[in-house]
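Progress narrative, Year 2. Work on Uroporphyrinogen-III synthase from Thermocrinis ruber advanced from sequence curation to structure prediction during this period.
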Amino acid sequence: MKRVLLTRSKDDIERDRKPFEKEGFEVIALPLIQDVPLDFDMPEGPFDFVLFQSQKA
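Result:
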């Protein structure tokens, strides 16, 4: 049996498991990531660029 371990948020695991199961993988879900919105104020001043480290940043 082919297995794959998904260590993402619960929502992402549910979305991403379907292609793996379609290819015959047993999906092992281990939600290690939790999305938590942060409340913060952007510092004032001119910025030349803003860098996001992930698509959910």
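The longest helix spans residues 10-22. The CA atoms of residues 7 and 32 lie 5 Å apart.
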